[in-house]
Amino acid sequence: MQKPGDLLKQRSEAVAGMEDLAPARLPPLQSQHPFRPAGGDGPGERRARRSEGLLGLLCVLLVILLAVMDNLSGAGVSFSLFYLLIVALASWSGGRRVGMWVAMLSLAALLIHDIRLPDERASGRVLFWNLGVQAAACLLVVLLVSAARAMKENLERRVNERSVALEHEIGDRRETEEKLGKTMRQFRQLAENISDAFWMRDAAEERMAYVSPAYEKIWGRSCRELYQFPQRWLEAIHPEDRERVAEAMRSRQGAGEYSQEYRIVRPDGTLRWIRDRAFPIRDSSGKVTRIVGIAEDITDRRRLEREILEISDREQARIGQDLHDGLCQKLISIAFDNNSLAQRLASRASAEASATEQIGVVLDDVITEARAMARGLFPVQLETDGLSLALQQLAASVSARGRISCRFECPQPVFIRDNAMATHLYRIVQEAANNALKHGKPGAILIQLTGDDDRIELKVSDDGIGIAMPPAPGGGMGLHIMDYRARTIGGILAVERGPDGGTVVSCSVRQLPD
């Protein structure tokens, strides 16, 4: 079963992607006459041809009527303009072919009228001149009017094609909007009914685009306030965590590597632990347009983990104390008995005397190892003399166990007021030293403790082969435990390669006031 966070991530990617959708542009339809459907001689085609025929016949009758009136009116009246108007009407209504036929009929009528004139205009040169001028005028009118008609038809055809395309686009857009609305409703139902705070912000403008109602329950602040003042998100983070989280937001959210745990301070002063994860949403060109995240309240989980860790520490202390007070004491008694037996056998010059002496040596080694284990599980000095002496004893134990040089440096006394903090710091050093012995193959280990009443700095460095950087995903359990202990006491753990090789584990923590 998928987790709500994974479902929200998939849903938010779908929503962000659908917001940028545009209906696909359809290919233009095949050009066709607005009154002539493609693919056959249909009723519309026949009606168009019948209409053109009637208009052509009407123009012919008008030319004949105009020719009769021209011949009856005498030589002083000119009807040339009216012939051009009829030619223009024929060209507009019937096209270029009908216009040419009407133009030739008009030229014939004008020629007959000029031949019948009694004056010098009936001479050959004048007749040819007038006929040429009239033919040029008619041809120009036919060409211009037929071109205008073709442009009009083409415009109508393009308008019809665009209208059909727009109808398809409107249908596609309506379908897309319906899908988007359905997705948005499902997304809101999912986002508003989970206990985690789901948020979405604009990558460029740093403004909050959406935050689910769970934000008000976890943060104790209103969503409206966050929309108006997006910086309130950072302002609510604990001052000790704010800079770290702000840097991670700037450098990691766009790369999809953002995952942070931090504390927030609610308006009533209570603290809550938050696990915040974010990932980018990209457009078709790969540009990050949105940052989407899920903030989970892990306060109860952190409290349970801390309690489990404390129980583990107490159990380790109990086992260490049992080893020291039980097993070690019994081993010491056995060692005394063995010594007594060895002395009696030696006084009798028994051959078994050397065997009992060897048993005594082995018992001494076992007692030493048992005491070291007891001190590791239950550092008595930590309870009585403080962290410095406990670390000094730990360094001596590491030197004896690993047969290497392990030194402890503390330039000035460091007093830690919180015994739980001292215990966590001791365990961090213990884990770092053990990791160095197991994996680093060092020749020397250096433990350094510095600090004052405000902050404690702890560092464990070795000259071994060094840790791989960055650490492998998942890492070892020891690294996770050290990091968790550091975060439990409000500290910051850093693991890195030393400048001259080896590994350096450092922890910085602020002391709580009395």
Q: Any overview of this molecule?
A:
With 514 residues, the chain is of the alpha+beta class. The protein has 4 domains: 1-186, no CATH class; 197-297, Beta-Lactamase (2-Layer Sandwich), CATH 3.30.450; 302-378; 382-514, Histidine kinase-like ATPase, C-terminal domain (Heat Shock Protein 90, 2-Layer Sandwich), CATH 3.30.565. The chain has 15 helices and 10 strands. Strand 6 (405-409), helix 14 and strand 7 form a beta-alpha-beta unit. Helix 1 (4-19) runs antiparallel to helix 5 (124-191). Residues 18-40 have low confidence and may be disordered.
**How many strands, which pairing sense, and closed or not: the largest β-sheet?**
5 strands, antiparallel
Overall domain count? 4
**Rg to the nearest angstrom?**
49 Å
> What structural category arises from helix and sheet content?
alpha+beta
Number of helices: 15
Distance between the termini: 48 Å
Write the layout of secondary structure elements.
Elements: H1 4-19, H2 43-73, H3 80-94, H4 96-115, H5 124-191, E1 197-202, E2 208-211, H6 214-219, H7 223-228, H8 232-235, H9 239-252, E3 258-265, E4 271-282, E5 288-297, H10 299-347, H11 353-377, H12 380-384, H13 387-402, E6 405-409, H14 419-440, E7 444-451, E8 455-462, H15 477-488, E9 492-497, E10 503-510
Parallel strand pairs: 6-7
Antiparallel strand pairs: 1-2, 1-5, 3-4, 4-5, 7-8, 8-10, 9-10
Helix pairs in contact: 1-5, 2-3, 2-4, 3-4, 3-5, 4-5, 10-11, 13-14, 14-15
